Amino acid sequence: MSAIAENLLQVSSRIQRACEIAKRDKKDVGLVAVSKKHSAEMVRAAYEAGQIAFGENYVQEGVDKIAALQDIRQQITWHFIGPIQSNKTRFIAESFDWVQSINRLKIAQRLSEQRPLDLNNLNICLQVNISGESSKNGVTPSEALLTCMDLVKLPNLSLRGLMAIPEPGASLQSMKEFHQLFIEIQKHLMKNQFRTQFDTLSIGMSDDLEQSILAGSTMVRIGTAIFGARNIEEDQEDLNTAQ
Ligand SMILES: *Cc1c(COP(=O)(O)O)cnc(C)c1O
Hints:
Blueprint: H1 3-22, E1 30-34, H2 40-48, E2 53-56, H3 59-68, E3 77-80, H4 89-95, E4 98-102, H5 105-114, E5 122-127, H6 141-151, E6 157-163, H7 172-191, E7 200-202, H8 209-215, E8 219-222, H9 224-227, H10 232-240
The structure holds pyridoxal-5'-phosphate (PLP).
């Protein structure tokens, strides 16, 4: 068995155990394998081991990888999870299935205009800055509801939920509050009869997977535990890059 296949099994059993402890169904927690800075060949190895959802942080790297894996494009769901510059939105709109890192309406409007009409709606999540650090991307929790009310109206996009990147060592309580915000927005959208499948709370990385599932995550984004370590300094930049 390949190292990636073994790592995937381990991550899967971590998710299983966390779900048992949280008394949740494992089917309700999706796994996005974050392949940033890893090759198309490694993505293919993970795909061959059964993984079908992948996350990328950089537009050019992601677009190139998607092109290199064109033969399995229909079987894979590609998530864009990195900071978005407005001059790059077209490439994202044309190549990806999901964008989890929406941090302002303007970006979503561009993606909506640029989404090719022969493709399904682009699934989006609003990124919320739950740790209050100025360097992190995302709207504040108090802005999230009104922003969602705007996002849900855009054509060619489907608002699917919220995403956050908690600071390292963030408390379980802060993640539970994020889950609570998600539930409130979900109720509000339903009450106002917006027809959207607002079902995704994307939170949880290699180091906080268990705690995120306990707090109610429905989608974990795991890089290191599947593909191995990346360069730490560059990594800090990734997570902190402002617009
Ligand atoms: C890199 C990254 C991840 C994966 O982080 P790991 O700690 O390697 O699991 C998840 N989400 C986002 C937004 C990332 O940039």
